[in-house]
Amino acid sequence: MSQKRVLSGIQPTSDSFHLGNYLGAVKQWVELQDTHDTFYCIVDLHALTIETDPALLRKRTLASAAQLLALGISPEKSTLFIQSQVPQHNQLGWIMECMAGFGEASRMTQFKDKSAKVGSDSARVGLFTYPMLQAADILLYQADLVPVGEDQRQHIELTRDLAGRFNARYGDTFTLPEAYILKAGAKINDIQDPTSKMSKSSGSGAGVIEIMDSPDANLKKIKSAVTDAGREVKFDQSEKPGISNLLTIHSALSGRTIAELENEFEGKGYGDFKSAVADVVVEYLRPIRERALELLQDEKHLLSVLHDGSAKARTVAGATVDATYKGLGVVQ
Ligand code: TYM
């Protein structure tokens, strides 16, 4: 039987991915490579919904590729590509915009949050149509599974709705995708503000653990992580959001269960626990950062991996656009 298809994407909107990106998504991307037919996309077109500096976009797109490779995405196992190098994303994106209702697009919580932040005069139309482009990303590859963090669940639901609507009206064309969201890691929180999601756009960045940050900087950040009232290292999301977040991070990186960690730190204070979390994170990320920096030295190699991936992606995406146009009655 042929392998199930996986697609996911990540925006090149900062110099570094953070632990939320890794534990919520990319860690699963790496694991799925061995059992699934995997397509992973650096979604540079999605990054254009906010004002971008051209030099930064280029730098961050290459840095994203280097980090994904350093985190374990293998070009032999996966198709790794840049969204803008596959023009079918724009082609199917438009079709998806024509399938979506204005009201349903207006209910997307990420759009509501992000447009509220900048105000409706500054929010771009692209921010509104963003989820339909994301639907196209997924449907072009006939993906069965989409490994993402919890914040993307609503976009995957919309994608299913749009695909189902198209299939019902124009004939079976798209596979209905399912979100693949693991319980542990689905939402990693900011370590300074542990009731909010760790995010590339967080104000000071003091609560965001970045993969490309120096080991020293990450050590300091974790040692000054916000903890909670009391002294016990116990998982309790509502009473101890700070400690629970750190337990989740430790467990996901060390492979030990939360119960084991609670046992180990019984009777010890938060200080000891934070030192242990810092060690685990810093030692886990150290070789990844070094490898990413090394990969960034050889831009030619990075570009050639991405060009190969994009060529493969265009073949698959092209077939889907042909089938979509055929269903719609577009003259070809
Ligand atoms: P982006 O670039 O914001 O984030 C990439 C992935 O990281 C996950 N993530 C988190 N997971 C757990 N805890 C966190 N604090 C955290 N922060 C981010 C996200 O859920 C995501 O899986 N719209 C997408 C990009 C996209 C996409 C796609 C994803 C475009 N097309 C097609 C899947 C399929 C986004 O903005 O992700």
Automatic annotation (TrEMBL):
The keyword Ligase applies. CDD domains: TrpRS_core (cd00806). It catalyses: tRNA(Trp) + L-tryptophan + ATP = L-tryptophyl-tRNA(Trp) + AMP + diphosphate + H(+). Signal peptide: none annotated. Keywords: Aminoacyl-tRNA synthetase, ATP-binding, Ligase, Nucleotide-binding, Protein biosynthesis. GO terms for molecular function: ATP binding; tryptophan-tRNA ligase activity. It is found in: Mitochondrion. Its main location: mitochondrion. SUPFAM superfamilies: Nucleotidylyl transferase. InterPro entries: aa-tRNA-synth_I_CS, aa-tRNA-synth_Ic, Rossmann-like_a/b/a_fold, Trp-tRNA-ligase, Trp-tRNA-ligase_bac-type, Trp-tRNA_synthetase. GO terms for cellular component: cytosol; mitochondrion. GO terms for biological process: tryptophanyl-tRNA aminoacylation. Its EC number is 6.1.1.2. It holds the Pfam family tRNA-synt_1b. Belongs to the class-I aminoacyl-tRNA synthetase family. This is tryptophan--tRNA ligase. It comes from freshwater metagenome.
